[in-house]
Amino acid sequence: MLLFVLASCANKEEPNEGMKRVLADLSNSDKNFAVIPLPDSIVKMEKGKFQMNSKTKIYTAVETISEAYYLLSFLKGQPNNIRYRLDEDMDHLNKYGIYLMIDRKMKEEEGYSLKITKDYIKIVAKNEKGVFYGIQTLRQLMPDIAEEENAGSENKLIIYVKRGIIGNNMTVPTCEIYDSPKFLFRGMKLDVSRHFFSIDFIKKYIDVLAMHKMNYFIWHLSDDQGWRIEIKSYPELTAIGARRAETIEGKNFNPFKGDGKEYFHFYTQEDIREIV
Question: Nearest-CA neighbor of 42 among 98, 128, 116, 139?
């Protein structure tokens, strides 16, 4: 999970109204509903939890079939036999399961509602994007477990995500959430010119961005420090531009001290296609 650290200014200035709201939300937050970014509205419901087990099915409209497969793939990563089923009759919530639904009358393009009862989970949105973001909130509501991902020989990504198993069941608290993004552009940049990251790391990085409802991945592929993308008609771009004699250790001030190890990395066109 991405961590945001709030630090007070040295001059002890009073926080502005926006910061006051953030601090109030943090102080009033419930650890069972620790979602980033904080949804517009979280209403706790009756006591109890929804249990995902071998009988849990995903019911989906045709429009959200891709999102249903995404959720299925995520849940199958847990030691549970979650079965998939396509059901276009979404008007009757009379079966125990997870429902992905489209309501074109909703106002917000990327907004969604997430309702969790002891009997069902229902995600409703205007379009597929909203359903996808609702799934990300559902992921974050799952029990905490530390997850360490080996992302290539040189890079390791350690994150804390809302996943976990309690006994043979995975549970989420009952609640009703309404949410929509405040900004159309929500992105993070990864500078691979100065330091190269493996394809496996980048895939996990994008997955973490998606879990926090970011919608743009900015891939910084070239700069003075290195050219990282293969152009077959101009091979010297990588033969020269992707190589440096050594990497400076410590601060970038004269006299420079290097590690004595050649640094030579770039992404092939196949690598780029795999990410795109």
Answer: 116
